[in-house]
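Exercise: predict the fold of this chain.
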Amino acid sequence: MEFGVPREVRDLEMRVGLTPAGVLALTRAGHTVYVERNAGIGAGFSDEDYRRAGAQIVYSAAEAYGRANVVVKVTRPAAQEHPLFREGQTIFSFLHLSVASPDLLEALVEREITAIAYEMIQEEYGLRPVLLPMSEVAGRLTPIIAGQLLMNSGGGRGILLSGIPGVPPAAIVILGGGVLGSNAARAFIGLGAQVTVLDRNVKKLQHLDDIFGGRITTMLSNEYNLDRVVEFADVLVGCVLVPGRRAPILVSRDMVRRMRPGSVVIDFAIDQGGCVETSRPTTLRDQTFVEEGIIHHCVPNMTATVARTASYALTNAALPYLLAVGAYGLPDVFGHEPELRWGVNLYQGKLAHPDVAAALGREVEVDL
C-alpha cells in the first residue's frame, strides 16, 4: 500500500504525521511511503532521516496526496489541501469534524474520502489509544503555560504556582478528570500547587483520590459546585470531551466575570468548541486574549510547541492501525482492529459515525 505524509500547513505547526521510525516499520512491511520535503524538519527529522528509513521524498503536497492511498496527517486538512484529495482515498488525522468548516465535509464527500479521526478511535471500556498520548502531553504542558501567564510579565496576578512557606500556592481548578485532566493535576501537584478536580463521574473522582493519595480535592461537577470553585480559581483548566460532539458550555460568562482579574483560563476543549462561554480559538502565534479581565489561552494544537515529543507519541499510538490498514485494507481491517471502526467519521464519502452525524444535523448514511 502507498502512504503519504504531507507537510503540515497551519501556522507554526511543527508536528509531523509519521516519524522516521514509523516510516521504517511501514517500509519493512512492504509498503511505500511518500514524505513531502521538509515535512519533519520542525520536529527535528531531516529528509535524509526519512530516506534512510526507506521513504521516498516528494517535492510538493500534491505529490504526497496524489501518490497515496492513505494520507497520514496530524491536524485536519486545511482549505488549501482539499483540492489535493484523491478519489477514494483514506485520511488519518485529528479531525474534530463537528466543529470544522463545512467546506471540509463537502470536500470529503465529493472525493468519496474515508476519514478516520484519531481522537475517536476507541478500544473496549472507552480508552482512546491515539488521543491518549496527546492528552498526556497537553496535560503535562499545562503548568508551564499557566506559570508563565500568572507572572506579571504574562499579564497575570503575579502568583508563583508553588507559593512559598507563609504564602499560599496558586489555586488550580480542573474541569474533567480524564487523561488530560489527571496529567495536568499530576504536573501541578509536582510543582506544589493546590488542585481541585471536578468530574461528573464519581468513580473517576474516587480513582483520582486513590492515585494521588488525597493530595487533590475532588468535587462532583454540577452547576452549584462549578459556581463555587470558579470564583477562587487562579487557573481554570477545561479538559472536557464529548466524542464527536461540541463540548458543553460549563462556565458561563457571568462566572468568568466573577473570577479575580488577572486569573487564567486554559480551555483545552476549544478543539471541540470550548467549555467556557468566553473562549474562542487562538493560535500558536497569538496564544491569548483578555476577556472580562481574565487571560484566556485557547490554542487547539498546543502540543505542536513540543513537536518532536508529540510526533513520537502520535506515531507510537497510530502505527499499529496504519500497519493493519496496510495489511488488510478497507473494510476488512475492521474485523482485525474493531476499535478502528469507531474512528471512521466518513466511509467512502458517506457519514458513518452516529455522534458526528448528529452533531452535523445529518443522518448516518452507511453502517459499518
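Check your answer against the key: The chain has two domains: 2-127+307-359, 135-299.
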